[in-house]
Amino acid sequence: MNTIYKKFLFRVASEIAGVAKSIAPYKTGNLKRDIKVISYSHKKAVVGNTKLAPYAKFVHFGTKPHIIKAKNKKVLATKGKIFGKKVNHPGTKANPYLENAANRYINSSGFTRAKSALANEVKNRIVNDIKKAVKL
Q: 71 pLDDT band (50/70/90 cuts)?
């Protein structure tokens, strides 16, 4: 039975990852490309980002206002713009794309189909077990 639940959770996690990729914010594309099923078992599945997008947690949960200081250079700068030795960053608003994807998927017909497939597999397994037991 554990393999049935493991297969179900992998299906759900994969489909949530797909939804997350469709709604995640886009800048370079690394954040979207990096959304994966990180692990799964018969008890739980984990969907998220890996080291390709280490900033994902800041996008998902947001940041409070903070000071950014130059570490290895004299000033902070980007192409064509110099900011100085430190900058007061206003923070960023949270964009919980993984949570939103899970909620969207759970309320979708895809989740309904996955649950029906799970129910059919469990039913078939039980019927087969009963048939085997009766033959003994």
A: confident
